[in-house]
Amino acid sequence: xxxxPAHAASRALVERGGDFLMRLLGEGRRPDWAWFEAVLxxxxxxxxxxxxxxxxxxxxxxxxxxxxxxxxxxxxxxxxARGQFRPIGSxxxxxxxxxxxxxxQPLEAQAAVEAxxxxxxxxxxxxxxxxxxxxxRWFFGGNDRGSCSxxxxxxxxxxx
Length: 160
Description:
Layout: H1 8-28, H2 45-58, H3 61-77, H4 106-123, H5 126-137, H6 153-159
Helix pairs in contact: 1-2, 2-3, 2-4, 3-4, 4-5
């Protein structure tokens, strides 16, 4: 749609997706839970990112706003009291309205980086750049254990 915003099939697909995400959010949201579902799973920030992208493509400000609101909420859930990225762990899956830090997955950090980039493109807000950097640092020791991801350049250099 960036190349051809008038492409009918693409527009219909994005519109259905945006409507679907907004319905999910309407059903899942509670006063203390600004999320699409009652549980958290893998790749959480992608839902907010998709809603922001759909809102941009379809020029739906309320979709962009809802995407930014939910992304800010999940960002707050995924930053520890010490200010480092703490992805939702897989121990939380299927447990309604809870989140635990155990079994953190690298794809969650990458999703946070990319979703923050989308939010930054939509708003230019400094918060999104800062959050992307916090999540990015997770791979290089900015995490609960203070250790590098086994695939990070620093870890690769240490084993070479």
